[in-house]
Design a protein that fits this description.
Blueprint: H1 2-29, H2 35-56, H3 66-71, H4 73-92, H5 95-103, H6 105-117, H7 123-142, H8 148-170, H9 178-196, H10 202-207, H11 215-241, H12 244-265, H13 272-297
Helix pairs in contact: 1-4, 1-11, 1-12, 2-4, 2-9, 2-11, 4-8, 4-9, 5-7, 5-8, 5-13, 6-8, 7-13, 12-13
Length: 298
Amino acid sequence: MQWRKYFTGLAFSFVFVVTYFTNKFVLSVLKFTYPTLFQGWQTLIGAALLVLFGKLGWVEMSRISRSAALSWLPASLLFVGNIYAGSRALSLIDIPLFFTLQNSSHVVSGVVLKAFHGEKLQLLNSISLCLLLLSAVNLPLSDPQFNVSGYAWAAVHLSCVGVYRVFKSHYKPSGLSDLDQQYINYLLSVLLLAVAAHPTGDLAGALDFPSLKSRTFHSGCCASALLGFMLLLATVRLQSGFSIEHFGVWIFLSKITAVSLSPFVFHMTMSTPAFICVVVSHAAEALLLYSQRESQLR
């Protein structure tokens, strides 16, 4: 029934917002800026819960062949770069600005599709991508709390997101479901992040972390891992019940909700030009969704 689809979308939006807020709380408020451990913990719990849910028959997990896993390996490497750089950026940048930069990943996807697939861009598509790029480029110039490291990691994050989007839509191996893909992503993430924990200094820093034995810290880390897994399930459920265009709309609405509520949850300082960049970026994303819908109807 139609109301069940809307309930699925609303549930996705709720989990989306709470997940980002929880991650922001641990990374910025508690200042646990050790992404190899933070993301390693999340992906380890995610992989374990996927296996458990598969054994219980609550989700469908197929046997993954070696060839399929190897063909998905480039996407998994992009996923690791996405979550690592995303954690770095989110710890240093406010949520509205983070999503403004993340939106420009559509520009990366458009460039890759144009360069390697020769796809022609419609006029509305081109306008929206230009506005997304313009907002992202002007944001560092208008951010009163500009942080070079934060924006550098955000650039890596949005690049990985953009290329991953193209890989997922054009090079998806046959026989791999979305959950199978995510399981491979989780396993590679745990392996690489565990290896990188010592060379990056995250392991030594975490051992000296002041709030290591804090109940608030433990609760935040457990909540972030469980919410991340719930967001995965909600995403898969939403994708199975809606078209790609409608799925994009629900992600857009979820980001708008997070951007609107974040000033009431976290302290932030935003200038008028930065606010304009945020508004233009999300308006451009709405235009992009509209142009994609129109192209599908033709």
